[in-house]
Every structure is written in C-alpha cells, then in structure tokens.
Amino acid sequence: MPITTLAPMPQFDTQASVARLVRLLAVPGITGQEAAIGREIIAALKEAGVPASAISFDDANTRIPEPTQTGNLIVKLPGTGKKATKPLLFMTHMDTVPLCAGASPVVKGKRVVNVHEGTTALGGDNRTGCAVLVTLVAELFKQKLPHPPLTLLFTVREESGLFGAKHLNPAELGGPAMGFNVDGRNAADVIVGAIGADRWTVDIKGKASHAGVAPEKGISASMVVALAMAEVYAGGWWGKVVKDGKVGTSNIGPIGTADGRSAGDATNVVTDFVQVKGESRSHDAKFVREISAAYKLAFNNAGTRVKDNEGRMAKVKFTSRLDYLPFRLKDDAPVVTRAAAAVRAIGREPNLRVTNGGLDANWMVKHGIPTITFGAGQNEIHTVKEFVDLVEYESGCRLALALATGEAE
Ligand SMILES: [Zn+2]
After folding, report:
1. Nearest-5° angle of CA 304, CA 309, CA 315?
2. Does 268 sit behind a cis peptide bond, omega within 30 degrees of 0 on the bond before it?
C-alpha cells in the first residue's frame, strides 16, 4: 500500500521497499561468498517481473585473485520507448564486510538494526543498494513508468578490494551512457570523485644469529624496518603527506611474517625476516606513486645500512600495486547534471562531493562509464553499531526512480 502522501514525486510503495530491504539484509553474503545473496536478489527480481532471460552472471570471479563464489550479477532491461537510446547503468555491490556474519535485521521505528545489537555489523553497506535497485525495477514495472534501457549491476568483492568492478568486462554491460552507483549514507550527497591508492608490500631478508653470543654475525630485518620508518617520518612521507601543494596519505599496516606470525621468534635471535604492508593514497595519481616511491627508497637505503661483520647487507624487495585510480567528474558532465536534477526533483539540494575512500565507481570511470555514487541510508558501517536510516533509504529509492524516469539531458 503506498503510504507516502506529502513527499514529492515519484511515489512508490515504501512498505514493500522496506520489506525488501529486511529480506535482503537477512541473507548472509560476506565478501567472496555472494552465491546466496545473488540467488535471493534474482528471486526478488523475478517476483518483480524480470524475465529469467534478462539475468546473468559474468565470469569476473575467474579473474579475481581471491576465492570468489560467483561473478557479478547483470540484468539488462529494454527501454519502453521506440527510440534507440543508450542504457543507464544502476549498480551496487552485494557483498558485506565479514563483521556482518550472523546479523539478523529488525525494523525499529525509522531504523533497521541488528536484533542482537552491538554484536555484529548489519550489512546496510550494501544491502541498501541492492534493495534500491530491486525496488526501482519493481516500481517501474508495477507503475508502468516510461524508462530508457537499463542495465543493473550487482558486483562481488567490493569490500575486499573493488575486485568485481575491476575485473568485469565493460563490453558485457550493453554500452551504458552513464552509471549511478548506490553505496553511501545520504541520497543528496552526489560523489563525483574519489581518491586513488597503491598497496605495497616489502619483504626484508636479514640473517639470524644468536643475539647474545654473536649479534655482529646477524642482519636484523627489524632494524631495517625501524631505520626505513625513521627516514620516511623525517622526510614527511608518513600519515598526512603535503608536498608542493600536493596532498596524500600513507600508512604502515601489518608488520610480521608472510603467513601472519610476529616478526622475530625470540629475544635472543637476530630477526632474519620481516614483511611490512602499507598503502599510499591521493586524488593525484602521480602523487600516489611518488609516496610509494619514497617508501621504496627508504627501505632500500635502510637495507644497505644494516650489515653483518662481513659487510653483507639485508635484502629488500619492495612491490607496489595499483589498488585503484583516482577520478573527478566535471560538474557539468551529463551524469552529474542528471544526478543533480534528480536530487532536486525529490525535493533535496544536491551536495557534490569527493571522497577519500575507493569506490566501485573508480573502476567504472576507468572502464569508460562516467559514474556518480549516492547513498541510501547506510550508517556506522563496518562497526557493530551499524543501522539503516529508513528515511534516507526511502529517499535513495525515490532518487533511483527519478534518475530512471527523468528526461535525459
Ligand atoms: Zn559499500
């Protein structure tokens, strides 16, 4: 039953949309294990009237370097008009962070929370996006609203490194003119740019020796780390990095062995191996690489300073890989103006923003599909306090409808 009376157009069945959200939140699907949630989304799409022939999975999971149950879920719907137009892409990710395992959603006032509050995350990141996409199709069909051809994309393994979006084949999406990614808190926040990042790993091989009897015969990998970090810190490359007007960040994450144990086994042994993992970020792709290069230089320098009594040095192997490229869409790009107009159509004021986190949209832009991101009520994500704000979720549904039915620019 449509209950919205005062809200701006377009109208839709908010109760059904909330029921859909709770249904999708109840299905587990942590990153890499998206088979069950994929099936549930397909069931909900079929109930909304989508024919089985419109639904398929791609084979991105065969290219993702981590075990992944299924490919990305792709749905292609013809437009209602006679004119041939390029499709619009609506996308979202269907995986959740591992902290969501065991969540059980329940509606409490204008929120959805976990029944066992404070024990797990909820999964509103990103089942809100999944529910918005299914609601979009259900309402377009039920209300027989005119719309251009649509491609829906539900990606896998977003949370563990944007892998589904990275490894999809853009040729399988039907040539969309632009993309709308649902993954965020606020429907009026239009994300038009995002940061880029490198992840790097450095393996330092020293030499073990008895630390009390013959320390001079050892080469301490731990000391290489310490000297490298001191150089990085002194050079201003750690944490928030500002150089000649360029801004970025960097961080050192795990310090240990390749299989996750602590670096160094005993106090009386010179530590012979340490693996360090870290990251570099900036909205300037070149500066991301400069930050990573500063780390590489510091580790290599430190490796030459820590020697045994015969002058042998530590061996340092620094490997860096592009996590995702930064992007910034122009304010007058058609995807941005269409999004801004749709936000106004639902009675809100658009807020164009850039984010310091990576998004599936980073890869879509790289694939040649200009893509903005907006939110649909996820809150306190990746924490045990996670909840969904249903007012914002309903705004996200309404915005998707406005985007799909509004006049193209
Ligand atoms: Zn997300």
Report:
1. 30
2. no
pLDDT of residue 10: 72
Q: Which residues surround ligand 1, an ion (CB under 5 A)?
A: 125-126, 183
**Domain boundaries defined on the chain:** 14-194+327-405, 196-324
Q: Smallest Cα–Cα separation from 280: which of 197, 355, 358?
A: 197
User: Could you tell me the CA-to-CA distances from 77 to 117, 179, 366 in Å, in that order?
Assistant: 39, 15, 24
Between the CA of 92 and the centroid of ligand 1 the distance, in Å, is: 8
Query: What was the pLDDT predicted at 265?
Result: 85
pLDDT in tens, 307-349: 999 999 999 999 999 889 999 999 999 999 999 999 999 999 9
Place 9 in a pLDDT band, splitting at 50, 70 and 90. low
CA of 172 to the centre of ligand 1 (A): 23
Cα-to-centroid distance, 261 and ligand 1 (Å)? 30
Q: CB–CB of 65/145 below 8 Å?
A: no
Note the pLDDT of residue 406.
79
Distance CA 184, CA 128 (A): 9
**From ligand 1's centre to the CA of 302, what distance in Å?**
38
Per CATH, the number for 14-194+327-405 is 3.40.630.10
Q: How far is the CA of 74 from the centre of ligand 1 (A)?
A: 18
Model confidence over 220-271: pLDDT tens digits?
Answer: 999 999 999 999 999 999 999 999 999 999 999 999 998 889 999 899 999 9
Q: What is the 126 CA–ligand 1 centroid distance (Å)?
A: 5
Q: May I ask the CATH class of domain 196-324?
A: alpha beta
Q: Is the pLDDT of residue 8 over 60?
A: no
- Say how many Å lie between the CA of residue 93 and the centre of ligand 1: 7
